[in-house]
Design the sequence.
């Protein structure tokens, strides 16, 4: 049964990855899970349109630390041209200024030729009146009939300056949050297989073009069919292999619907290197039990690697999912909250080691590693890891923000400990990192 996980030309010895989680999988969380054994981690989902408009906060979500392993950038959006632009921009962040310069020049030319409003620096987002934005083909046609959905030059260079390129790109087609779905993004893409295909295809094509050293492509080029020349100082081939594009989908949209096989086939046909399947529909959100059978159905229907997701709360769950579905890898989400050791547990079971004997006080090696296999962390080890997590977040963000964000992590780390309720109550009123440390250590 044991095998490696292959995504494009990437090979991972262990098939366990950390899911992208909004507001959670920041640099600190990813680093801790990587050190605990996650083979691949993902950023929080990032708006492709936010990159287009140069939103500073969007860029901050993509910062990758030197102590992290392979990191995937998860993008969300429903406009193929803008998703393609984001992939181009992030594939070679070092030349982002040149990318935006080429795009801006082409937009200026396009505006002068056929769009006076764009030439004057204005913005047009479609017809003033009409149906709500839902990502449907009818809606896209309505927008295109009155001009490009976005005809303003991109400003992504200021957003991605200094960033590292990702190991993979991932398209979010599973987010159930209403405000995302209303924009035709996230799991709304499940309702329009053709649009989903177009988005994946555009991202894969952009990754190939970026690897070959070609210039960027955005809405203006998508409409005109023109491709700008790469700058003279830009190497003919930056990377021999394109950055792989993966997708994350759900079982379906409606509660009793199952379209995962159709959508996964569309992803494969569009060039995706792997597909992650969450065994719930959009209408379920995170309620009920994840349907692992649909993961098995997708695995039988496509040739690309299939990564299972949903209801993996222990390392044993991860192994059981692989045995029952035949999936190539497991994406762990809520099971990693306050418990990065879940990756150590999964790896130990994958190696056939099972649970080991506690290493004992004063022994060397990471918490969770004992003779013969995995040893669950003690309460003391959990608190030490929590304090380390707090310190890392404080270093990455302002203390006020770090204190607010760590409140939820504290609840996850101390779940089941004696006095956890009282500790959570005190943490929720703490205003500084030092207060949190004193509460956790009892000083």
Sequence:
């Amino acid at each position: 049964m044991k095998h490696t996980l292959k995504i494009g030309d990437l090979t991972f010895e262990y098939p366990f990855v950390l899911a992208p989680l909004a507001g959670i999988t920041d640099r600190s969380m990813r680093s801790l899970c990587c050190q605990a054994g996650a083979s691949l981690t993902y950023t929080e989902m990032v708006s492709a349109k936010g990159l287009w408009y140069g939103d500073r906060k969007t860029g901050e979500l993509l910062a990758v630390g030197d102590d992290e392993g392979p990191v995937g950038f998860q993008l969300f959006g429903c406009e193929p041209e803008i998703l393609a632009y984001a992939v181009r921009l992030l594939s070679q962040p070092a030349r982002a200024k040149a990318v935006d310069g080429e795009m801006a020049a082409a937009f200026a030319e396009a505006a002068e030729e056929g769009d006076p409003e764009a030439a004057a620096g204005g913005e047009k987002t479609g017809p003033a009146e009409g149906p709500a934005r839902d990502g449907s083909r009818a809606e896209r046609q309505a927008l295109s009939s009155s001009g490009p959905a976005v005809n303003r030059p991109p400003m992504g260079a200021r957003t991605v300056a200094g960033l590292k390129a990702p190991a993979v790109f991932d398209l979010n087609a599973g987010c159930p949050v209403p405000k995302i779905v209303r924009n035709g993004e996230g799991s709304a893409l499940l309702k329009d297989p053709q649009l989903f295909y177009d988005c994946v295809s555009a991202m894969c094509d952009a990754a190939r073009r970026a690897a070959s050293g070609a210039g960027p492509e955005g809405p203006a080029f998508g409409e005109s069919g023109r491709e700008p020349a790469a700058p003279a100082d830009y190497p003919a081939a930056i990377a021999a292999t394109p950055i792989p594009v993966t997708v994350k989908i759900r079982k379906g949209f409606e509660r009793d619907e199952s379209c995962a096989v159709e959508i996964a086939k569309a992803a494969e046909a569009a060039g995706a290197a792997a597909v992650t399947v969450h065994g719930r529909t959009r209408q379920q959100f995170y309620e009920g039990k994840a349907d692992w059978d649909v993961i098995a159905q997708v695995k039988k229907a496509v040739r690309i690697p299939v990564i299972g997701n949903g209801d993996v709360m222990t390392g044993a769950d991860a192994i059981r999912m692989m045995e029952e579905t035949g999936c190539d890898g497991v994406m762990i989400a809520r099971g990693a909250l306050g418990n990065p050791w879940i990756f150590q547990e999964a790896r130990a079971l994958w190696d056939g080691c099972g649970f080991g004997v506690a290493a004992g006080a004063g022994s060397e090696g990471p918490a969770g590693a004992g003779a013969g296999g995995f040893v669950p962390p003690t309460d003391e080890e959990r608190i030490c890891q929590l304090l380390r997590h707090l310190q890392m977040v404080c270093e990455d963000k302002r203390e006020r923000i770090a204190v607010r964000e760590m409140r939820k992590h504290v609840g996850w780390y101390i779940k089941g400990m004696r006095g956890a309720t009282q500790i959570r109550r005190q943490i929720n009123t703490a205003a500084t990192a030092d207060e949190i440390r004193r509460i956790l250590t009892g000083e």
Q: What stands out?
A: The CA atoms of residues 192 and 263 lie 9 Å apart. The chain is about 45% helix and 10% strand. Residues 193-212 form the longest helix (20 residues). The radius of gyration is 23 Å.
